[in-house]
Amino acid sequence: MASMNLFIVLAVVSVVFPTVVLATEFKVGDDSGWTIKFDYVAWAKDKEFHVGDKLVFSYPPGAHNVHKVNGTGFKDCIVPPQNEALSTGNDVITLATSGNKWYLCGVGQHCTIGGQKLAITVLPAADVKLDAPSSAPASTSSAIGVVKIGYQTFVVVLMAITMIVLV
Length: 167
Description:
Elements: H1 2-21, E1 25-27, H2 40-45, E2 49-50, E3 54-58, E4 67-69, H3 71-76, E5 90-94, E6 99-104, E7 117-123, H4 140-166
Parallel strand pairs: 1-3, 2-7
Antiparallel strand pairs: 3-5, 4-6, 6-7
Helix pairs in contact: 1-4
């Protein structure tokens, strides 16, 4: 019975683990960070965001903040109450659900005049598949695909060893 419990635990870990391990951390604005007069539309354009990924908003504390808003708030730069702002200067947001997400800076006119706002679409958690790598151009997503194949191989070997031990 203990062997069967071990097998069940390993099966659950093999399903949950890829989402945690394969999550990508995106530094919003790359080296520029979270700032005014930056093209966040261009920054996000070629990126794929998935459930489990993290957005890191880096900025000098006190200079900016981060608010999560809805589509109307984003379009019109409607700033929520300041007590809802993230303001550490190194704010990390884990993307927990799929769909459209909107963020803006609520300091002064940073959103309306400085364009300090970000809109992204979050896709469901990346599936782990044993498909051959595509011929898509190299990117963060294709690098994740290589890691997934290595992980899949690890899981298959681990499950095979567990089955041998159980039998």
